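Figure 6 in text form: structure in, sequence out.
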């Protein structure tokens, strides 16, 4: 039987196996992996924000990634305010929606198809949050977000003769490990929380 997930009253977020409120850094593994995204933002910002760089999609989404990285670092590090948890997960949802819409529009050539596709998954995520037991809702939501991005990405790769498919395959493998860690975390089998593993899939 899966143990019930406990939630912290200060921020409303789940209490992971590694969470220790007696430490100054409450979730060290999660904090470090969230901070990695700040580094990813700095790395790409130095390359993207140049006149010769033409891919405007990356220029637009990088600030969202930065907010998520900063919010995730503060949230997992200190677990003391609800604002931080929103800064952690809302940018992830926005990036997922934008990436899914971007690749679906590239594949279909029609913006309305991309919009219907994204809205359909957004509805499914809302239904999962409403009807799936709370201890499973987060994992189901992550799974649906991954599928929402993966489907148009696979179609896009097929149009490009599977160029860079190995990177997508690696991300899928890492995400599978992260999702498994999310399900197992309440049992305390692993010392670090699911965010530690999820970082590698998002990178």
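Output sequence:
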């Amino acid at each position: 039987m899966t143990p019930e997930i406990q939630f912290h009253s200060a921020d409303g977020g789940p209490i992971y196996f590694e969470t220790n409120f007696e430490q100054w850094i409450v979730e060290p593994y999660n904090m470090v992996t969230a901070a990695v995204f700040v580094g990813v933002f700095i790395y790409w910002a130095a390359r993207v924000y140049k006149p010769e760089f033409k891919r405007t999609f990356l220029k637009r989404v990088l600030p969202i990634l930065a907010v998520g990285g900063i919010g995730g670092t503060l949230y997992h590090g200190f677990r003391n305010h609800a604002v931080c948890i929103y800064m952690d997960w809302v940018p992830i949802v926005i990036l997922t929606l934008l990436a899914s819409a971007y690749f679906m529009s590239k594949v279909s050539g029609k913006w309305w198809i991309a919009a219907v596709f994204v809205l359909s998954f957004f509805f499914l995520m809302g239904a999962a949050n409403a009807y799936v037991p709370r201890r499973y809702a987060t994992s189901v939501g992550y799974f649906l977000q991954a599928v929402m991005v993966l489907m148009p990405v696979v179609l896009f790769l097929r149009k490009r003769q599977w160029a860079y498919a190995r990177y997508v395959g690696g991300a899928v493998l890492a995400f599978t490990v992260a999702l498994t860690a999310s399900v197992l975390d309440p049992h305390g089998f692993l010392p670090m929380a699911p965010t530690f593993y999820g970082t590698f899939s998002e990178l």
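Caption detail: The helical segments are 28-48, 56-78, 82-108, 111-131, 134-159, 165-184, 194-202.
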